UniProtKB/TrEMBL annotation, chain A:
This is Endoplasmic reticulum membrane protein complex subunit 7. Belongs to the EMC7 family. One of its GO terms (molecular function) is carbohydrate binding. One of its GO terms (cellular component) is EMC complex. Keywords: Membrane, Signal, Transmembrane, Transmembrane helix.
TrEMBL record, chain B:
Its main location: endoplasmic reticulum. It comes from the Eukaryota. Belongs to the EMC1 family. This is ER membrane protein complex subunit 1. Coiled coil: none annotated. The keyword Disulfide bond applies. One of its GO terms (biological process) is protein folding in endoplasmic reticulum. It is a single-pass type I membrane protein. Residues 1-26 form the signal peptide. One of its GO terms (molecular function) is nucleic acid binding.
Amino acid sequence: MWLQVRLSEVCLFLQAMFTLACCFSDMESGPIATSGSVQPNGDRFKIEGRAIVPGVKTQDWISSARVTVEGEEYIGFLRTDGSFVVNDVPSGSYVVEVISPGYKFEAVRVDITSKGKMRARLVNFIKTSEVIRQPYPLQLRSSGPHTYFMKRETWGWTDFLMNPMVMMMVLPLLIIVLLPKVVNTNDPEMRKEMEQSMNMLNPNPELPDVSEFMTKLFSGSKSSSSKAGQDEGNRMDEDEDEGTEVFTKRKLESNWDRYKESEKDGPSDDTPTQRGTDYHVLLESAGKEYMTCSFEMA
Amino acid sequence: IEPSAIMYKSTSLFVIFLSLFVVSEAVFEDQVGKFDWRQQYVGKTLFAHFDSHSQTSKKLFLATDKNIFASFNSRTGDLFWRHVDKAGPEGAIDILLLHGQDALMVVGDGRLLRSWDTNMGGLNWEAVLDTGSFQAACFVAIQDTVKHLAVLKNAAISLHYLTNGHQKWVENLPDRDTVQYQAVYSGGEEEIYVLGVVPNSHLTIIAYSLEDGEIIKQRSVEAPWLSSVESSCVVVGQGMLMCVDPGTLALYTLPIQAEETPQFSQTLLQSLDLEVSPGFQPVLVSSQPHPARSPISEFFLQLGPHHHVLLQLNGDGYTIAPLRDFQPAFLVSFATTGEKTVAAVMTPKNETACAINLFSADSGRRLLDTTVIFPLDLNGGKPHKLYVHAFLKKDDSVGYRVLVQTQDHALTFIQQPGTHTDTGTYTQTLEQLFGHNDHRYVWRKKGEACKPKNTIPTVKHGGGSIMLWGCFLFGIDSKSGSILWKHYLENVQPNAVFKLIVQRTTAHFPHPPQCTLLIKDKDTGLASLHVFNPIFGRKSHIALPVLPRPILQSLLLPVIDQDYAKVLLLVDDQYKVTAFPSTKNVLQQLQEMASSIFFYLVRSDQGNLSGFRLRKDLSTERIWEVVLPTDVQKIVAVNGKRPNEHVHSQGRVMGDRSVLYKYLNPNLLAVVTESTDTHPERAFVGMFLVDGVTGRIIHEAVQRKARGPVHFVHSENWVVVSSSCCSCSSCSSCSCCSSSNSSCCSCCSRSNSSCCSRSNSSCCSRSNSSCCSRSNSSCCSRSNSMGLPSGAILSLPKMFLDPRRPEVVTEHSREENLIPYAPEMPIRTEWFINYNQTVLRVKGIYTAPSGLESTCLVVAYGLDIYQTRVYPSKQFDVLKDDYDYVLISSVLFALFFATMISKRLAQVKLLNRAWR
C-alpha cells in the first residue's frame, strides 16, 4: 500500500515537472506567426493543412472525407491533392479532424490568437493546457484503415490440442497405451518391481477395502461376511485356474449344494473354521491378478 | 471464502472486461449487411445538372436544400459521392453551375466560392468572397472560351478565374442604397451587364469592362411597372431583355447593349391572342445554351398553372410570334445539344400517367418517336420540375433523358427507349424501381422532405415494419428498408409537431394493430388524430374525438378497452381530459382509476413544471408546481421513463456482501436545464430528478462549464447526460447518476437515505443523439447508442458510464466487476455498430426490444436512415452466426457409423470366440 502511494506521488511529481517544462518551452517559442492567413472579412482566419493516406491514391478516398473543426462547427473539404483549407474561422482553440469512413487520422488542436497567429498541438482532453507541438500547416498522415470488425474465432488443430481438457484426456490415454509397450512385462525383475510399486501405492495392506467395509456394515451379521469371504475365495480360486486359459463366457452354476452339509453342522461348532486361503494372501494375489488382467486387456 | 471471490481473484479484471464487452459490441466482418441496412438521402433538389462532358457519362449532379452536393449514377440512382456541408444558412448552396468537369458553387449567401472536380469528387479550389448577400452569378466567356465567373452581390460585382478562383477584379456598384441589383448577363462580348431595379420606378443597366472592371456605360430606363428583374425578366435572343407585366398584361422588350437610351417596347398579350389565368403571375422561361453565345430567341411564357406558350422573338427584336400553344401542359424545359435546341413538354395523359414530348424550339414542331410516359403516383404528389438532357443519336436525331422532380421531392429518371440497352442489375436500396419495360428504366429517389421525425417499430424481430414520417407517412420494412406503403397527410402545417402512439400491437388477433398519429399545429396548438393500421397503412374508420381546444399533453395509459386498444388521454388548455377511445367501459375504468392517474405539464418559457391529478369527472386538479427561475436557467428537456420498462434485478450485491437497492421510481422525471448565461466560465447544465406524483425534487446535479446541445437517457436507476464542455469544447461529458437506497444486509437497521452517485467522463467526440438499448425483460446489460458528428453510431457499454467506478481498484470493486474510473472515455472503432456506413446528421436514435431477449433493434435517423441490431450481452439465446453445421453433422454421422461398425466388429469377435 505504502509503495502504491509513493508511486502515485512520484507520478504526480513527474507530471507536474512535465507540465512546467512544457509551459517554459511554450513561453520560449510562442505561437508561430503565419503570414497571409488573415482574411479580408475581419477577424476570420483559415486553417490549412494536408492529409495523406500512404499508398492510396487521393481519388479513392477524398470524395468520402471531410475536415471538421470543433465537431461540425466549421467544415472543410479536401482538394484533389489531399490538401485542405477551412475558411472563416474566428480566433480560438479548435480540434481539427479529418473524418473518413475508410482511414484513421489523428485529431490535432489548432490555436488561433486574435492576431491570427497559429500553432498546432496534440489533442489532450484531460490536460487542455499541455502543449506538444505539431507542424503547421497541418500534416496529417493516416495511420491506416479503421478496424471496425472483430476477428472470428477460427477452429484450428493447435487450439484443440492445447485445450486443457483435451490434454487431460489425451495424456493418460497415451500412458495407458504406451507404457506396457515400453515396459517389458515378461521380465521377472520388472514384474517384481512393479508389484512393489503397487504395494507402495497401497501403503497399508492391513486396511480393509472401503467396499468391503461397506458390505460389512450393511450386511451386519458376522456369518454372512465370512460367507462372502469364502465365496470370494472360491471365486478367486476358479479365476486362478482359468487365468492361463483364453477367456470364454462364464457359465453361472450354482454350487450352493456343496455347502449344504457343512452349513448344517456349522452352528454346532462355536469357533469359526477357516476355509479357503488366508484373506491377506488372497488380497495380494488379487492385486497380482488384477495387474495381469489389465495388461492382457491392454 | 466464497467461491465467487476465489474466482475473481484468480481472473484479472481486464480479462473479464475484454471478454465480456469488447467482443460483444463489435460487428463481425461477415455480418456486414446481414442485419442492417442504410438509406442515404440528400434532401430537396435545388439544382440539378447532367454531366454533358461526355456522351456516355452516367453522372448527375445535385445541390439540395440540406446543403449537400451529390453525384449520382443516372442509370441506377446510386450515390457516387456526396459532400455534406454545415447545416443551416452558412452552408446553403446559392447556385450550382457546371462547366466541363468543374462544378462551381456559391455557398452560404455568397460567403464562399467553390470549384469541384466532378470526376474525383474532390475540391479544386475554394475562395472567400467579400461580404454581401449573393444575388446572381454567370459564366463569362471571351472568344468562345469560358474563363471567368462573375458573381453579383447586393453591393459589388467580382470576376474570378475558373482555374484557381483568384479574383480578377471587384467593383462596388453605384447607388447601391436605392438600386436593387438582381441580374448579371454576359453574351460572349467584352462587356458584362448588371441589371438593377428601383421598384416601380426605373431599371438601371451598367456595363462593365471585362478587362479591368471599369464602367463603360450606365443607363437607366423608365419602368414604373417593374418591381423585380429576377421574377419577371429574362434575356432572349441577341441581348434583348424580355419582361412580363401582370398588371398591364403585356410583354416588354429592351435591347440591353443599345448605345442610345432606348425605351421598353410594349406588346400586349391580347394582340397575340393570349390570356392569363386569373390571379396567376405569368412566368418567362428562356435558355442560354452556351455562355459564349447569346440566348436563343425562343422562350416560354406560362399563362396559367397548366398553360404554356412557346413564343419567338423575331430578328427585328420587337415583334413576337407565338409558335405553339401547350394546354394543358404541366412542365416545360429547354435542352440543347450541338446546334439543336429542343423543348420538352410534359402533358397529362390520363389519371395515372403523363407524357413527355420533344418539340423543335425554332419551329415548334413535334419530333417523332420522342414520347416518354411518366407514371404518376397518386400518393407522391404532382411533378414539380423537369430537367432534360438532350443528345444527338448516331442518326443525327435528338434523344433525351429526363429527370422529373415531384412535389414529394422524389426524383425520377426516365430514359428514352432504345438508346441504352444496358439493363444490368441495380440495387434497389436507394430508389424504388418503377418500371423496366422495353429498355426503359425509371428510378425514383426519395427526397428528404419526407424526413423521418419519429419512428416506431411495430412488429418484433424479423419482417416487421417501421414507420417514419414527415409530411408523408411511410411504412418501411425493417428487414430491408423498402417502403411498404405511404400516405400523404393532408392539411399538415409545415411546422406541425407529431407524436406517434401504438395503441394496439399485432398480439390481439383478430383486432388489427392500431397506431395513432397526433398532429399538433405549433402556432395554434390545435391537434388532430390520424388512426391507421401500421402493417398495411390503411386508415381506420374509428370515430375520432372532437378536439376543439389546443392540446397540451398526451398520455398513453396501460388501461385497455374491450377491443384491447390502450387508452390515450389528451389534456387541453383548460386542463380538461379527453379519452380516446372513449367507450363506456373505458370511462368506467377511468373513473375507478382516476385517483391514481397523474400527469405533468412543462412550460419552458415560464420555467414551470406542474403536476396534476385526474378527477372522476375527467377534470383535473393541480397538486404540485416546481418553478425554475427562467432568468438563470431554462428547461431544455424533460424525460420520464418508458411505461413498459422492466427492471430485472432490483438490487446489486456489493463487494462487502451488502445489497445495493436501485431506486426504481416509475414516476421519476429527469429535467435538464441549460443556463441562460452562455459565457464559457459561467455556463452550466443542470439536472433535476423530480417525482412525478408528489413533485418532490429527489436529486439535483449541476455540470459546470458545460453547454448544450444536451442529450440524455433516462432508464432504470440512472441518467446519462451528455453535453459539451466549454473549455475543451470538443469533448462531451457524460455524467451518469444512479440513485439507490443502500442498506446493509448484516445490519438490522435499515438506512433509508437514498444516495446518489455521479461521475463525469469526457468523450473525444460530441454526440448528436443518444438512446439506450432495451430488451424484453431487461436481463441483458445495457449499452448506450450515440450518434457522433462523424457519422458513426457508437454503442457504449453502460459499464463505462457507471458512476460507481472507483479511482483505485480495490478487492470489493473488482468483485463487483467495476472497471476503474478513467477521466477520458475511449472511443474504439470496434464499437461503431454501423462500421463504415456513416449516418450523417443523426437527429434521433430509436431502440426497441425484439422477440429475442439478447437482441435490441436500433434505428438511427437524420439525413439517412440506418437500422441494425445490437447484442449488449452477446447472443446467448441464439446459435452463433458462424455455427458450423457441417462440422457438427459430420461428427454426428461419423460417430453413428463408428458405433455401427464397432458393433458389427464386436459381434464378429464374439462369434469367433464362441467357436474357439
